[in-house]
Amino acid sequence: MERITFKNEAGLTLVGHFYAAPSESIVIMTHGFLSNKSSSGRFDRFALKLQQNGYNVLTYDCGGYGESDDTAIHFEKQVADLKAAKKYGYQIGMKKFAFWGHSLGGRLSLTCYEPDIDTMVLTGPVTGAIAYQHVDNFSKEQVAQCECNGSMVFYVDDPWRSEIVLDKQMLTDFDEMDQAATLENVHCPVLVIHGTEGALEQELAQITKQGAELFPDGTKMIELDGADHGFMEQLDEIETLGLHWLHEHFSVK
Q1: Which of 28, 51, 155, 207 is deepest in the core (most CB within 10 A)?
Q2: Whether pLDDT at 155 is above 80
């Protein structure tokens, strides 16, 4: 694994981990809300497994997260970050691309679909609008701060930073996702994995089911019984499901 850096269109430096393999196929992994390139250890282990199976892998911190440059986060900034990560992949000689996203990283993956994306693996993805109050326990004080100052501060347990600044726009971004417009633009097979436990994961699964007919042909949806939004007790199963899916839909060259 190599620590790498690249720039987004705003000129911010983004930090990633690149797992090199002898192929021209790369899986770009995008983390969720208030997370980082490790994704609580999920991406670290998945990336190593994929690397061992011949895939190059890039995990990265969106701007304002992890080791990347500071900025107040909102969705469109993170869209630009994933596009910058994909551009970096081209710059280092990659020819085939797949996305792997967790939670909000799933929405980012869907939003950033382009015809050169062969497939996606999404765990607990945000596939439609969800009230921001359901995403995290925003306090009245935090929301008031956000309304007044245009941003709010989250203190996080992160090896690289102590706080993440949330732009007021992010609250709107959760509430206003156009599910149909997003999913109708995706034209590759997608593996969608949801859990059955916890209010957040149950709501996200229901949102995905409501848009099931909008997903492209070849999409597969799986519910893991007993899994909550973190999937921390099901990592072995997700690793196996994801790897098998990639073997079927994403060749190693």
Answers
A1: 28
A2: yes
Q: Is the residue at 147 inside a domain? A: no
Query: What confidence tens digit (pLDDT) does each residue in 232-248 have?
Result: 999 999 999 999 999 99
Provide DSSP, 111-132.
HT--TTEEEEEEES---S---H
Q: Is residue 210 part of a domain?
A: yes
Residue 137: Cβ-neighbour burial (10 angstroms; 0-12, 13-18, 19+)? exposed
In a domain, 62, yes or no: yes
The stretches of 32-74 forming alpha helices (DSSP H) are 42-52
Q: To 10 degrees, the CA torsion angle through 61, 171, 133, 59? A: -10
Q: What per-residue confidence (pLDDT) applies to 143?
A: 82
Q: What is the mean pLDDT of residues 26-46?
A: 97
For residue 206, pLDDT beyond 90: yes
Q: What is the CATH number of the domain that holds 23?
A: 3.40.50.1820
Q: How many domains does the chain have?
A: 1
